[in-house]
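[User]
If only I could read backbone structure tokens as easily as an amino acid sequence. I have put the entry right below:
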Amino acid sequence: DYVNEASDGHFRHNAFFIGANVREAEGRGRADYTPIFLSEIPELIRSGQRSVDTVLLQLSPPDRHGYCSMGISVDIQHAALESAGLVIAEINPRMPRTHGNTSVHLSRIDCAVATDDPILELPSPGEPDAVSVEIGGHVARLIDDGSCLQLGIGAVPNAVLSFLGDKRDLGVHTEMFSDGMLPLVENGNITNARKAVHRGKTVTSFVLGSRALFDYVDDNVSVEFHPSDFVNDPRVISRNDNVISVNSALQVDLTGQVSADSIGYRFYSGIGGQVDFVRGASMSRGGKPIIALPSTAKGGTVSRIAPHLTEGAGVVTSRGDVHYVVTEYGVAYLHGKTIRERALALINIAHPDFRAELLEFVRGKHYVATDERIWEQAINRYPADWESREMFGANELTVRPLRATDERILQEFFYGHTPETVRERYFSTKETLSHREAAHLCCVDYECRMAFGVVEKRGAAERLVAVARYDLNPRTNLADIAVVVHEDRRRLGIGRFLLNRLIDYARSRKISGLRSELRPDNEAMRALHLSLGHQVVWNGEAGTYT
């Protein structure tokens, strides 16, 4: 073992990514760590900044033209080959012959050693735990037909992949290809048919997994291996549309800074390809860079959504690069958001045990107004299982519970109303919806106060086109309701759908009944209630229908 103490004075390991085999040696100062984007390592070697004297390779036997294959790993090996003074190769018939840029001619090898040892396999991570399954479900809802995937290996990526059995024409452009993708290939979900770069081909730098995975890539023309400076080049990645990159993190602070290679002053892993794919996906048309992590560590005693990064922890993905952050409690979209909006979004996907102290922190730092009403939503879990995509006419719209961070789109929804709609909803000629009022309307607690929105997505932007809400009177266990649909989305069945969704949700909360007060000129809502069999009564004293 070249990182044990017996090797001191002979080898000093320099890790571009710290694995379990070198973590202790690096922590004790017997090995080094070079933080660098994976896409830049080949040039680091070619330029001589990190010189390579000798390269050790494991290759397949040569074909009749004298070309061996690098097999399951190409990544930075071409750069090392071009720069090394001495090339030593193990020739192993168990190494798959793979396609793409994998060839090495015998003439380039200075010393060849025959071997028949099994190729090292990575044990299966097993069935994902409950937290990983929750995270996987949230991530999967961000993936559409035709998306181009980059995922690693482990419980969360495998959980994501397990939810994609109903997707069509998925593509793969990823630094690492794993066993978790094989069922989607066999099921026909992964076809690569909509890719722009190497259409019809899975593109990767290396595979890590089981012998079944190695057998799958052996002489498989549908899988191409290419070097890291191609696969991980953000410009290449971005040429595919709808790139979904899913990467992990150790900690995310309330401004969106992502730490992924260190725990405080202790270096734990590496930068790897995270930033390459975050930036490539963000430049891709329809792309979504996703950071996915459990909300806690150390048996639930530490929040990974942190007020600030632990002292000494390094920023891998900056607050300017981050887009989606996902935990088992939901999805926070941060790109282009204010610090206040980011903090609220991240607190709402933090573990409930830590939300109060996170709120105290942001108030103490004046990220939010000290009297702002955001406690209710922080206490109760966002009901993600009430999200759905629905067709209204020719429009596919998202129906979901409102969040504290919907304040701005709720204001835009209000300012898009005609005066008649404002009178029908607010029973007055209301002209403004202040920040404080909008925040109050968005900060529902999902129990006594609930609101659903119908959202039209335009890329990453959202437009609110309808809202339904109730406010419960705990004394009577009856709730007052209101439904508003934007003028340009009426007569599509949205109001009927929202009213039924609100009724179903109220029933799930054991609310005894709902009531709505309508102006006499609000004929559309009165007709809707009547068509659903609701009792409509004229209240002459108030001049309204109930």
Observations:
- Residues 235-372 form a domain with the Glutaconate Coenzyme A-transferase fold (CATH 3.40.1080.20).
- The chain has a mean pLDDT of 90.
- Residues 305 and 542 are 50 Å apart (CA to CA).
- The chain is about 25% helix and 25% strand.
